[in-house]
Amino acid sequence: ALAGDGETLRKVQAPVVVTPHPGEMARLMGTKIREIQLDRLVVAANAAAAWNAVVLLKGARTVVAAPKGAIYINPTGNPGMATAGSGDVLTGAVAALMAQGLEASQAAAAGAYIHGLAGDLAARRKGMIGLVAGDIAAALPEATMEIG
User: Fold this and answer.
1) CA–CA distance from 80 to each of 67, 83, 84, 89, 99 (Å)?
2) Could you tell me if 66 and 91 lie in one domain?
3) Which structural domain, as residue segments, surrounds residue 122?
4) Are the beta carbons of 133 and 85 closer than 8 angstroms?
5) Mean pLDDT of 117-126
6) If you average pLDDT over residues 41-53, what whole number do you get?
7) CA pair distance 8, 62, nearest whole angstrom
């Protein structure tokens, strides 16, 4: 619905966090996945500035870029998390942190970290193969407690 339409995002008055995987980002930017993957940091930063939105570009070492230039690289997570519904769990974590008062870029960075840590904890228990979104969601409380 937003592919190639950054103007819609710029018009939103509330804080915006977008959470695309590389394929979704390619559609949003009107380019190819290969171009997104070549320089994920620059792509995320440019999109964040252009859209006046926090961009959480999912993938190996998720990138969080804020409109004013801050960039975070998430060290947590694993390949088993590339499963249906995992992004929904991530979005819920970010939204919960924003609802608790964190600024959008902080919520996105912290949410990505906690989500990845939950995925790592779930993978230790169940293995990466066959990991499902429910496993990640179930590990969120433990991940949150682990970081204090």
Assistant:
1) 30, 7, 11, 14, 28
2) no
3) 77-147
4) yes
5) 98
6) 97
7) 24
**65/88 same-domain check:** no
Predicted confidence at residue 5, as pLDDT, reads 61
Distance between CA atoms of residues 101 and 123, nearest Å: 30
Phi, psi of 58 (to 5 degrees): -70, 160
Whole-prediction pTM:
0.93
Does residue 33 sit in the same domain as residue 82? no
> How many structural domains compose the chain?
2
* DSSP string of 66-103, one letter each residue: -TTS-EEE-----GGG-STTHHHHHHHHHHHHHHTT--
17-18/54-57 β-pairing: parallel
Do 25 and 87 fall into the same domain? no
Give the model confidence (pLDDT) of 60-109 as tens digits. 999 999 999 999 999 999 999 999 999 999 999 999 999 999 999 999 99
Residue 4: pLDDT band by 50, 70, 90 thresholds?
Answer: low
Q: Residue 109 has which token pair? A: 């960075």
Q: What is the pLDDT of residue 6?
A: 62
**Secondary structure class of 56 (helix, strand, coil):** strand
Rounded Cα gap, residues 16 and 2, in angstroms:
13
